[in-house]
């Protein structure tokens, strides 16, 4: 996991993980769903073999597509595998043939989603990658400062903190579900509750792609300030 | 297969197939990809256990979604299966939980495609199912008559002929690829070549959903008349 959405943690040194994998002749598959388009993803420099992302998070296109890359090392492994692939849908060899110079039919591509993703990528290019990453970082820091000013600490230490998803720790005795309901009903803001062992203990606040904006952070912090006084 | 797109054949008596399946305690899974929205699909009356279609053919929504139905008999089989499902993507038990009253997360749904499908279904409702089926049949018959007038016979006998996809047999010695290229370049009409053993022997002409229109049939027949004279 490059960017882990249940904790809000970012794996800060993928190259070191890749090095360990390759020493053992293993492949590194990296989940970049919540990082692609929001923070640097350097597939080749880090030595990642397979990386996949999502259209709907930091790229801000409609959901439905998952960009994927496959390294020559992983391609070789695909070509020489002996056990059959159990999933037609995610058989990368079939997908490879589909995208080859002599295409073999695999599926009807969702062309409207592909056009939408292309437009989203054009907007990424227009903003520029480094400006985009800086914007995600700046708005996340604005959120973190504001949450701390409200007396909320953050679950993840600064060195591993994800700019696209923040996880403030809930004050003891807070009505988690009630507060999030008010946030949605009164202010039209939806934030997510904790997952699994973190349920009721943290919130999950996304600032991804188009939604990573100063006005969104300010509005949320203002609404929280009001609600925390009364709940 | 309810509607088979490599031959242009329609299975005319699904109820009889279902009856044989159920007598042997087997489930009937019906591929309705090229029939749903273009000709009657009577899942319950026929005794079909699982039926799936596609958003992009006779429903004329963007590609990317596959409507699916599961009978109580098939649900029971899903609930009591002992071998694990090898595909996360098409694990119907997980999808069932995702759509249940207490949803368990499975995937991020492609909401823009869902809205588009809803609008496509609204248009189906506005036209009315029987009017829609009659339109598909009428335009197919117009095409069949026109092709026969041009000296082309049809691969499939009338009793099994699909209104949404027609397969005229090519005259001997015809330059298949060249003619289809001219059709696309000069008239902006794309028809498909034959598949597998039918490659070079038939064309596959789709008249599905929005594209099943008198003007499309007339334009194609006019273009073919011109091109067949010169090729």
How would you describe this structure in keywords?
231 residues; Aspartate Aminotransferase, domain 1; three-stranded antiparallel beta sheet; 42% helix; homodimer
Describe the structure concisely:
2 copies of one chain form a homodimer. Helix content of chain A is 42%, strand content 9%.
Write the H/E string of chain A, N to C.
EEHEHEEHHHHEHEEH
The CATH class assignment of the largest domain in chain A is: Alpha Beta
The CA-CA distance between the termini of chain A, in Å, is 35 Å
Structural class of chain A: mainly alpha
Instruction: Name the CATH architecture of the largest domain in chain A.
Output: 3-Layer(aba) Sandwich
**Radius of gyration of chain A, CA atoms, in whole angstroms:** 20 Å
Please write out the topology.
2 copies of one chain form a homodimer.
Chain A: E1 3-4, E2 9-10, H1 14-23, E3 29-31, H2 43-46, E4 50-52, E5 68-70, H3 72-80, H4 92-98, H5 111-127, H6 129-149, E6 165-166, H7 176-187, E7 192-193, E8 203-206, H8 214-230
Parallel strand pairs in A: 3-4
Antiparallel strand pairs in A: 1-2, 4-5, 6-8, 7-8
Helix pairs in contact in A: 6-8, 7-8
Structure description:
Two copies of one chain form a homodimer. By secondary structure, chain A is mainly alpha-helical. Chain A folds into two domains: 3-127, 3-Layer(aba) Sandwich (Aspartate Aminotransferase, domain 2); 129-230, Alpha-Beta Complex (Aspartate Aminotransferase, domain 1). Chain A is 42% helix and 9% strand. In chain A, strand 1 and strand 2 (9-10) form a beta hairpin. In chain A, helix 6 (129-149) runs parallel beside helix 8. Chain A binds chain B through residues 54, 56, 62-64, 86-87, 89-90, 108-113, 116, and chain B through 54, 56, 62-64, 86-87, 89-90, 108-113, 116.
């Amino acid at each position: 996991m490059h960017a882990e959405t249940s904790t809000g943690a970012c794996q800060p040194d993928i190259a070191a993980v890749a090095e360990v994998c390759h020493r053992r002749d293993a492949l590194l598959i990296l989940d970049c769903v919540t990082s692609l388009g929001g923070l640097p993803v350097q597939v080749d420099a880090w030595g990642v073999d397979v990386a996949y992302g999502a259209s709907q998070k930091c790229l801000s296109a409609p959901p439905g597509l998952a960009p994927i890359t496959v390294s020559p090392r992983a391609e070789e492994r695909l070509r020489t595998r002996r056990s059959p692939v159990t999933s037609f849908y995610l058989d990368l060899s079939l997908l490879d043939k589909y995208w080859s110079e002599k295409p073999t039919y695999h599926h009807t591509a969702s062309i409207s989603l592909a056009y939408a993703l292309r437009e989203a990528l054009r907007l990424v290019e227009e903003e520029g990658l480094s400006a985009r990453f800086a914007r995600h970082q700046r708005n996340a820091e604005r959120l973190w400062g504001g949450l701390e000013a409200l007396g909320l600490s953050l679950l993840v230490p600064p060195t591993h903190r994800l700019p696209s998803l923040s996880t403030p720790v809930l004050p003891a005795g807070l009505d988690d579900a009630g507060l999030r309901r008010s946030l949605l009903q009164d202010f039209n803001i939806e934030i997510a509750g904790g997952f699994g062992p973190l349920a009721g203990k943290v919130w999950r606040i996304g600032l991804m792609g188009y939604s990573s904006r100063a006005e969104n952070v300010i509005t949320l912090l203002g609404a929280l300030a009001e609600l925390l006084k009364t709940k």
